[in-house]
């Protein structure tokens, strides 16, 4: 091609279409000698010559090789081609760089997302483990508090029982015990006297005239109501004392309502007439 304008147009067209003229002639872009360009063109033209390829001849390929030779031998056309080709290569390199950065960012985002999911799952599992441990400790604390409360109540009741000072009930109980002992002693003496006086009574009956009234046969006054037994009175006093102690313990917070109720049931068993 002798027309320089046509060569410039072809050079821009090939560079825009990313046609590598150096690759067509199998030479390096640094080759500038005309003889080197022609030698490379001659070698490639032999490979694509119609006499060699015959029916497989490609006229477009042949024309492209011819045009590549003309452009690379023309200084202005080659400069236009090289500049346009450099711009295309720069744009391609920039696109590759941007795509590489984009791919790297996408990979980093995906990796960060996966790591975030993993950390979230780990935190959720840790939270569940903490909740289970908290529930276990709470249950253990409630159990120990219940045991300590029960032990504290039991020790306080035992201490109150040991440290309880005598009061009016104790004095009355002591007095009742003395009277009960005295009653038993008198009863035993009376029984002994009664056994010792059986023979004397029989002799007196033999000397008494028939039909005569003896003091024993005289009508006796009706017996008065029997006094309450001392054992019952003592039981009622003990029941009242226990009930009083249970109430004191409840007021001091050392006994529960259930324990007071149990005390009351015990009192009722000892003396059903004792009402709370």
TrEMBL record:
Q: Name one GO cellular component term.
A: spliceosomal complex
Indicate, by first and last residue, each region the UniProt record lists as having compositional bias (Basic and acidic residues): 136-184
Keyword Nucleus attached:
yes
Q: Where is the composition biased (Basic residues)?
A: 185-196
State where the protein is found.
Cytoplasm; Nucleus
The J domain, residue ranges: 20-85
Main localisation: cytoplasm
Originating organism: Colletotrichum simmondsii
Gene Ontology process terms (BP)? spliceosomal complex disassembly
The lineage's top-level taxon is Eukaryota
What keyword terms does UniProt attach to this protein? Chaperone, Cytoplasm, Nucleus
Q: What is this protein called?
A: DnaJ domain-containing protein
Q: What are the start and end residues of every segment in region (Disordered)? A: 136-231, 245-276
Low complexity bias spans: 200-217
């Amino acid at each position: 091609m002798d027309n320089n304008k046509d060569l410039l147009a072809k050079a821009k067209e090939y560079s825009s279409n990313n046609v590598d003229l150096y690759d067509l002639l199998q030479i390096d872009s640094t080759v500038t000698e005309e003889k080197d360009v022609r030698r490379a063109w001659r070698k490639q033209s032999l490979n694509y010559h119609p006499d060699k390829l015959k029916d497989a001849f490609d006229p477009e390929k042949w024309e492209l090789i011819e045009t590549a030779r003309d452009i690379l031998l023309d200084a202005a056309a080659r400069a236009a081609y090289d500049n346009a080709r450099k711009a295309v290569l720069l744009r391609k390199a920039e696109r590759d760089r941007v795509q590489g950065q984009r791919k790297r960012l996408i990979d980093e985002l995906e990796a960060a997302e996966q790591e975030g999911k993993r950390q979230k799952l780990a935190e959720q599992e840790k939270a569940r483990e903490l909740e289970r441990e908290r529930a276990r400790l709470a249950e253990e604390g409630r159990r120990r508090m219940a045991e300590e409360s029960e032990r504290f109540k039991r020790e306080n009741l035992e201490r109150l029982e040991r440290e309880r000072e005598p009061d009016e009930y104790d004095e009355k109980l002591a007095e009742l015990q003395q009277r009960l002992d005295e009653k038993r002693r008198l009863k035993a003496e009376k029984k002994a006297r009664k056994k010792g006086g059986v023979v004397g009574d029989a002799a007196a009956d033999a000397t008494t005239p028939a039909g005569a009234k003896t003091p024993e046969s005289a009508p006796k006054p009706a017996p008065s109501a029997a006094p309450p037994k001392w054992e019952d009175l003592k039981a009622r006093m003990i029941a009242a004392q226990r009930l009083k102690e249970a109430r004191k313990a409840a007021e001091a917070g050392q006994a529960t309502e259930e324990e007071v109720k149990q005390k009351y049931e015990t009192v009722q068993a000892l003396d059903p007439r004792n009402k709370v």
